[in-house]
Amino acid sequence: MSLSGIDLIVVIVYAIGIFGLAQWVSRDKGGKAKDSSDYFLASKSLPWWAIGASLIAANISAEQIVGMAGSGYAIGLAIASYEWMAALTLLVVGKFFLPIFLRNEIYTMPQFLEQRYGPSIRTLMAVFWLGLYVFVNLTSIIWLGSIAVNQVAGINQDMALIGLGLFALLYQLKGGLKAVALTDIVQVTLLVVGGLIVSALALRELGGDTGMIGGFYRLTSQAPEHFHMILSKDNAFYKDLPGISVLVGGMWIANLSYWGFNQYIIQRALAAKSLGEAQKGIVFAAFLKLLMPLVIVLPGIAAVILAPGLAKPDQAYPTMMRLLPPGLLGLVFAALIAAIVASTASKINSIATIFTLDLYAKRRGATSIAEDGSTVVADPAVERNLVKVGRIAAAVAIVLAMITARPLLGKSDQAFQYIQEYTGFFTPGIVVIFMLGLFWKRATEAGALIAAVASFAISLLLKYAAPEIPFMNRMLIAFVIALALAVIASLVRPQSSAANRIVTGDVDYTTTRGFNIAAVGVVMILVALYATWW
């Protein structure tokens, strides 16, 4: 596949437009230089539409588009549970987690851990997340993104990797989170429109004279095995999606960790102008998640009939892009670039935030967050230095990722699995630590540390001692054992109540009528989807 002249023009217009928009929203207003709140939390002024769009833009990248389309080709609609169950998880995060985080003026997840448990776990988890974000997540995003660009446009992969990384760094370097979040509405619009175009053309190709409706009917008729949401034990892919566990089992552990306690994601909601605005953004993101399988899974299923016998499932999405005429190919390719760049920029910004506020500022005593969690107006010179350090950290992070991407992932055929396997060792412990920290006052730092260690040890043991256990079930088992050990350790080694500086007594979990109606709508849609395709 190669891009025509009109396709290149479309891509260039996109690149110039998104870069220009980022610089425009990043400008210093009234001659006031950015402080740490401006740079890392967008001055705590993000509107709901920016929060919702940015949550999805941060989440959807090349590995999501190409990988999930490939899973649609191999497994079918069942892979959509990752998207649809995420919508339900977002509602839980919006109703129960955000009120506590915003009441206590939380900037970062490690900061929450210090205020809830103590300083040791803050430093430990900050270092862990930095390593995870740089050497697992960031490397994977730009590596898989460069593969997608190479497959679609024929650009040298190393040049694509460097270009994607530098563009993502430069367009958000000046403005920080604000530049990322306020441009993500464009990125998500492009992503959704581009994906819907691919799906529409695939269905039209299938339907011929009967159109897209006829194409969908043909797809469900000729590939019925690809339209089961809950896989039976005799299914070849049961180990990847173990039946009912996607509804009531281990998928909840992965989703709660990712959407509720992941700096890379939750930072957008922490930057909201109010709790109500954050919750509206969460609901907006939930509805977008319901739409995502139509954008990224359906083209993969369509390829079962339109392109049977592909050497690798991950070739499904690029193959479906060949249906696009010149001009539209450029638009969809720009959408693919938008997904990669938005996720990369979001990850870079989160790395800079954790390094600057949780390690550098704490060590230098320059943090702009008081011990009780309230915001402190620091010396302007100190604030400017924090922003400078954040920009340097962002640049170092992307350079490290570009250098290490090929050594870490170059020989891997399953880069997406590389992410899941590595993070899955720690996910159960992270959920235990935060859930106990949010909702059980007797949880202690000793219990939290034991949960972190136990999660890794148990997951590693189960992986090699009982490899027949599906990945999701393994996470659930590790979660239950880590939870039990954390509770026991907290009871055996209690600590002073003064160590817990997280205020929950006056937190109001009441949500607006609009949030409640939207939440019921999301649940009803999910019930209908699973009832139809069970």
Can you tell me about this structure?
Helix content is 73%, strand content 0%. The chain has 534 residues and is mostly helical.
> What number is the mean pLDDT?
86
What is the overall silhouette? globular
Poorly predicted regions are 371-377
Distance between the termini: 37 Å
Task: Please summarize the sheet with the most strands.
Answer: none
Characteristic terms for this protein:
534 residues; single chain; 23 helices; mainly alpha
Short description:
By secondary structure, this protein is mainly alpha-helical.
Write the layout of secondary structure elements.
Elements: H1 5-25, H2 36-41, H3 48-59, H4 62-74, H5 81-103, H6 109-116, H7 119-153, H8 157-173, H9 177-207, H10 211-222, H11 245-248, H12 250-260, H13 263-270, H14 275-296, H15 298-306, H16 316-321, H17 328-364, H18 380-409, H19 415-424, H20 427-439, H21 445-465, H22 471-492, H23 513-533
Helix pairs in contact: 1-8, 1-9, 1-17, 3-9, 3-13, 3-14, 3-17, 4-15, 5-12, 5-14, 5-23, 6-7, 7-8, 7-17, 7-18, 7-19, 8-17, 8-18, 9-10, 9-14, 9-15, 9-17, 12-20, 12-22, 13-17, 14-23, 17-18, 20-21, 20-22, 21-22
